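Q: Okay, next protein. This is Aldo/keto reductase from Lacicoccus qingdaonensis. I've checked the sequence twice, so it should be correct. Can you predict the 3D structure?
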Amino acid sequence: SIQDTYTLSNGIKIPVMGLGVYKNVDETELETAVSSALEFGYRHIDTAKVYKNEKGVGRAIKNSRVPREEIFVTTKVWNNDQGYENTLKAFDRSLKELDMDYIDLYLIHWPMPGTYVDTWKALEKLYKDGKVRAIGVSNFNPHHLQDIFNECEIKPMLNQVEYHPHLAQPELKAFCKEHDILLEAWSPLKRGRMFDEPVLVKLSEKYGKTPAQIILRWDVETGVSTIPKSVSADRVRENGDIFDFELTSEEVEAITALDRHERVGKDPDKVT
Ligand code: NAD
């Protein structure tokens, strides 16, 4: 079901399917997206300081009347808040904006050269202090993760990266698997730019599902958690409605073979 979970390396469960709220700054839109998601059964919301909507997310969760502890909430430390002390402060601000006592998952949004190791040490402190149930990173390549392994105590529990059939990330995926780091897909739908792929169209006809649903099902079957974004209640429901069919292993492979190393977002090795 939509409440299926993966278990992170520290034993914390994270729902496979979440709702992304990037660029949802309009209060009504945000409220619609979050409330229709929670009503449909989503229990995982992905926000970030830089999305400027933590306050609205917190409010929408409260208004939903689903108990806080049943919802998995992720937020992220933005690039200009990195470094040890700044990250601790940024975390407190996010907590205040969300109006919550704890966060389920706190991520380093991008590997900022020179500061991400110190930022990670701050996340370790927040974790040890019990302010966050799990800690992880976003947009980290193996060499960034290796720096963390070399200099820190705790391994990230999750890495949220751009992932869709045109960017299937085989090396990064194998590396994360080896280190027990869950991969999570951002822009899982390539922002709507690959629905006409013949492989997807054919499978969509076979299963009576949309290409978006085929892609999201592929995420789940490749062991990745996924956070598609939509502001329309219908699409939020459509994206969550992928737990009543299964792709065959050949079909999963055919989708994976669409990989062409094509990004819609920034290259993590080019952030400054
Ligand atoms: P996405 O691939 O989820 O695409 C979203 C867009 O696809 C929507 O705006 C809509 O136009 C379209 N869409 C959604 N559902 C559809 C459907 N069923 N049918 C047809 N079209 C549909 O892209 P995204 O918003 O970039 O990524 C999802 C989430 O990932 C974000 O909201 C955010 O939470 C997260 N994210 C994280 C990072 C990062 O650096 N960590 C970067 C980008 C996004």
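A: Here is a summary of the prediction. The beta strands are 5-7, 13-15, 19-20, 44-46, 72-77, 103-108, 132-138, 158-162, 182-186, 225-226. The chain has one domain: 5-260.
Q: Noted. On to the next one.
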